[in-house]
Specification:
This protein is 31% helix and 18% strand. With 299 residues, it is an alpha+beta fold. A 4-stranded mixed β-sheet has the order 1-10-9-8, with helices on one face. Strands 2-3 form a two-stranded antiparallel ribbon. InterPro entries: BON_dom, CBS_dom, CBS_dom_sf, Diverse_CBS-Domain. It comes from Microvirga aerophila. Keywords: CBS domain.
Length: 299
């Protein structure tokens, strides 16, 4: 149920909130073709001792006890383990077909021992002679251009193997990194996916879509022992104090899980943030929004 709020200085009818929880691994072979990774190597790469072990064994609980912060998700919780990868000898045309056919934005380049050597992404394939998008320098630019740079551009535009177009400096992550760290890295480096390594060995890949799927799987936990009004009030008051620049101007009360929030806020954004904080406070059944914008003095 989606919460909606009317802007009013008069007491409003409580808005009920939901209170219950909604209840072929390709890898290149010697000739550069994309082929399934043998199960023995897959099991070693995944760190499994027995093939029959449940994927969820040893995982942390997704439903923490009331009053405790939820556990931080790590790369190991969401990463894709069956990774499409290529060798240095894989044809560029085959790589392009894999990217478009599987709707992925990059493929790691690995050695025969599974070590990560590089990565080929969509950006590595947009300057190609086949489609007439190779770099063209004017005559005067060629005079001052670095000869090695010219040669490198030519190889990347005309080379037919992965080794000709792959990026060697690869940004990687490890299985124990938190999703917050991964999101920061993706945002800062403007990357869509990151290889996951154990040492220098490729064990998976984590992408933006993996993070989105984690959001989709999230469910609000239900608690066996409902929080008391005093517990809810302390929790919500702490959230309001952290969000509002003037928390003393806001009054919060809770009765039988029904929260009443009144007072002055500096902006509509602050008001919305407080309402969202209330929605996320365990134990709250409904919200009365009686906040108003603080009048601005006119000089």
């Amino acid at each position: 149920m989606t919460a909606s709020y009317r802007r009013s200085t008069e007491p409003l009818s409580p808005h009920l909130l939901p209170s219950l929880a909604l209840g072929q691994s390709p890898v290149p072979d010697g000739d550069g073709r994309i082929t399934p990774l043998p199960w023995r190597l897959r099991r070693e790469a995944l760190g499994r001792s027995t093939p029959g072990k449940s994927h969820g064994q040893g995982r942390r609980s997704q439903h923490p006890p009331a009053g405790e912060a939820p556990p931080l998700l790590t790369v190991a919780d969401v990463m894709t383990r069956d990774v499409v990868s290529v060798s240095t000898a894989t044809p560029v045309s085959e790589i392009a077909g894999a990217l478009s056919g599987k709707r992925i934005s990059a493929v790691p380049v690995v050695g025969v021992d599974g070590s990560l050597l590089g990565i080929v992404s969509e950006s590595d394939l947009i300057r190609r002679a086949e489609i007439g998008t190779q770099r063209r320098r004017s005559l005067w630019r060629r005079v001052f251009a670095d000869a090695s740079a010219e040669a490198s551009d030519y190889v990347r535009a005309h080379g037919r193997k992965a080794r000709h177009v792959m990026t060697l400096e690869v940004v990687t992550v490890t299985e124990d990194m938190t999703l917050a760290e991964v999101a920061d890295l993706m945002e800062r480096r403007r990357l869509k996916r990151l290889p996951v390594v154990r040492g220098n060995r490729l064990v998976g890949i984590v992408s933006r879509s993996d993070l989105v799927r984690a959001v989709a799987r999230h469910r609000v936990p239900s608690f066996a022992n409902p929080a008391t009004d005093d517990t809810i009030l302390r929790d919500l008051s702490a959230r309001v104090e952290a969000l509002s620049p003037s928390p003393r101007l806001i009054n919060v009360s809770v009765h039988r899980g029904n929260a009443d929030i009144a007072g002055l806020v500096e902006s509509a954004a602050e008001r919305e943030a407080i309402l969202v904080a209330a929605e996320n406070t365990p134990g709250i059944r409904s919200i009365q929004d009686r906040m108003i914008l603080r009048p601005r003095s006119v000089s």
